[in-house]
Amino acid sequence: MASQLSDLLVLILRHRVHSSGFIPPTPIRQLRDLTRMRASLRQDHTAVANRMQRILEDANIKLAAVASDWLGVSGRAILAQLLAGEEDAEKLAQLSRGRLRSKLPAMQLALEGHMTAHHRWMLRVLQEQLVFLEAQIAKLEAKIQDQVRDYREALELCTTIPGVEEVAAANLIAEIGVNMDQFPSAQHLACWAGICPGNQESAGKRLSGKPRKGSTWLLRSLCQAAWAASHTKETYLAARFRRLAGRKGKKRAIVAVAHTILVSVYHMLKNKQSYRELGADFLDRHNAENVKRYLVKRLERLGLQVTVWSSEDTAALLT
Fold first, then answer.
1. Using an 8 Å Cβ cutoff, are 77 and 100 in contact?
2. Is the pLDDT of residue 90 over 80?
3. Rounded CA gap, 272 and 210, in Å?
4. Burial level of 236, CB count in 10 A (0-12/13-18/19+)?
5. How far apart, in Å, do the first and last CA atoms of the chain sit?
6. Cβ burial 39-60 (10 Å sphere, 16+ → b, else e)
7. How far apart are CA 217 and CA 211, in angstroms?
8. Fewest CB atoms less than 10 Å from the CB: which of 69, 181, 283, 292?
9. Cα(77)–Cα(101) distance, rounded to whole angstroms?
10. Is 194 left (phi over 0), alpha (psi -120 to 50) or beta?
11. pLDDT (tens digit, 9 = 90+) per residue, 108-140?
């Protein structure tokens, strides 16, 4: 049986009746290694920062409750003095900079804790690890910048999409490459990425719409970009997110916006064109009649009698 399967595999490979897989060129694979390593190191950095925060809270120091970025300039200055043995909450609060100066009473209250030698020792160890990770991330950032120099045009095209910054654009290029001829269509790319609905049927009955498995690295980058795009103002992507989130929930809406971003990237890289913003009111303009009927029905359900006048009818009446 094993020999028969082996002979069948050889026959398939010889006559090339199988579909070819996506194997990016060496520079793209090297860029992919770098971007994935950067993502892993950033996860490690976040994990270490969370451990430090838990130790501070164990010492009853609620620095993160007042400072949104407790590892910023003010937070690091306060942390350095805590490790040096300073326990006066008023003196520590005076190290605040910028907008935190307006929160001095709250900051002083948050710093009234009890830090022991055990807490300081653990924080020093974690701080050394944090500094090491930041140095490694900075080294990787420089290497990635050098690696994407040959793909600067594609990088600039991707960053024209709302929510897609340079880091996300580099991640997308590293995962799908810049040559879109390897995918017959945008739908093929979305299917390969595992970000489109599945189509599992049996006897004409739809069983499941669960998407197929794709690249988790690509999916994460797309969803992060979609979440950033959902917070932009007066954009089509943000309007699409809000419309879908109300009916399908935020998670499904994020995946749908991520799918839209991936399709846009495909056409932009294939046609060498920048992103064209459709506007926040595109969906309303595209389905104007449906929007009118929906709004009229809502008013009628409230017991109101509605008469719809267009601007042309109003102008004709006035004349």
1. no
2. yes
3. 33
4. buried
5. 89
6. bebeebbeebbebbbebbeebe
7. 16
8. 181
9. 14
10. left
11. 999 998 889 999 999 999 999 999 999 999 999
Contact 59, 113 (CB under 8 A): yes
Check: pTM over 0.85? Answer yes or no. Answer: no
Q: Count CB neighbours of 81 within 10 A.
A: 16
Cα–Cα distances in angstroms (integers) from residue 52 to residues 59, 83, 133, 194, 298, in the given order: 11, 12, 14, 36, 52
pLDDT at position 182 is 87
Bridge partners of residue 201, in order along the sequence: 206
User: Which tokens go with 270?
Assistant: 């294939």
Residue 49's alpha-carbon distances to 35, 69, 289, 298, in angstroms, are 21, 11, 52, 49
166-176 and 216-230 helices, crossing angle to 10°? 150
Question: In what helix (H) or strand (E) does residue 238 lie, and over which residues does it extend?
Answer: helix 236-248
The one-letter amino acid at 188? H
Q: How far apart are the C-alpha atoms of 158 and 140, rounded to whole Å?
A: 21
Q: Which residue shows structure tokens 């060129």?
A: 25
* Burial category of 163 from C-beta neighbours within 10 Å (exposed 0-12, middle 13-18, buried 19 and up): buried
User: Of 207 and 180, which is predicted with more confidence?
Assistant: 180
Q: Which fold is adopted by the domain 26-149?
A: Helix Hairpins (1.10.287)
211, 198 in Cβ contact below 8 A?
yes
- Helix or strand holding residue 200 (H, E): strand 200-202
Task: Return the structure tokens found at 180.
Answer: 């879109």
Question: For the chain, what are the domain ranges?
Answer: 26-149, 150-196+211-271, 289-314
Tokens at residue 159, please?
A: 């960053």
For 5, the token pair is 């399967």
206 Cα distance to chain centroid: 31
Residue 143: the pLDDT is 95
Question: Each residue of 297-313: b (16+ CB within 10 Å) or e?
Answer: eeeeeeeeeeeeeeeee
Tokens of 309: 């006048």
